């Protein structure tokens, strides 16, 4: 900066140039518009707000937004279900929150506690197609469609909080004939399994959490921002495909039956569920049953190292495994490894 522009110095004005008097700062340009323009803007904003109030979803339960949308989802669901072995039984379990669809697959060790598989967000029973063959060599397996999510379960009552989330699943478990079960949850299904084990542990012999979301670490900001356009029903399908591919580590999702089902559910189903929140250390310390935790190194659902540290520090009776070079879609990427680790975990059953 030169001396001419230094603070406290002033250059003399040329004698033939008049110095204009001090003037007030100009108002922002938008405020200088004609008064009618300001009134029109106010009216438009008011109409937009009224339209939002009229169109916003106030239904207190999850539902398909149209009959055509449900038909499209069911077609995708049936195609994806064809990837699973034939179930030995189809169960519609009535709870005070609605009817929950389960499929029973007879497997090894019929007298031991079966595995109850809980899928992630916007998924359903077909999510476990790659895992079922190996898991059936270990135990009998139940899969379920989450209540309040796209699937064959039908929500009838609002799920207002995390106690309700545990309540409906606990009611389902009570109606299964086996005295105890092992919960196996993936992603949000992992959170659901942990939430139920914390609040309603009576029938749970053990828990396996496969890259659970919002359980040991918070969702990254990037994941939250990327999920917003993918969750809006009227956005292009390519946006949902892009998000699902990103969560799966870049794997292609076009023409994949399970990905088609998930994308259809995201587009045609309206959820009304409480957002999951991370558990406190005290809640995790209260889990007294054995817990197997699988954390994927490249997961986009949390800081994997932080999730690993928190799981190791808070769970009283846990086996924490860190899968290097694995993404969030680890259940489909490494089903053999997961089955081997679950087998070792069950072999140490207390």
Automatic annotation (TrEMBL):
SUPFAM superfamilies: alpha/beta-Hydrolases
Record-annotated membrane-spanning stretches: 36-55
GO MF entry, a single one: catalytic activity
Keyword tags: Membrane, Transmembrane, Transmembrane helix
Superkingdom per UniProt: Bacteria
AB hydrolase-1 domain location: 115-339
InterPro entries named in the record: AB_hydrolase_1 (IPR000073), AB_hydrolase_fold (IPR029058), AB_hydrolase_sf (IPR050266)
Start and end residues of each stretch annotated as Disordered: 1-27
Pfam families reported in the protein's UniProt record: Abhydrolase_6
Cellular component annotations (GO), alphabetically ordered: membrane
Protein name: Pimeloyl-ACP methyl ester carboxylesterase
Organism from which the protein derives: Actinoplanes xinjiangensis
Lineage: Bacteria, Bacillati, Actinomycetota, Actinomycetes, Micromonosporales
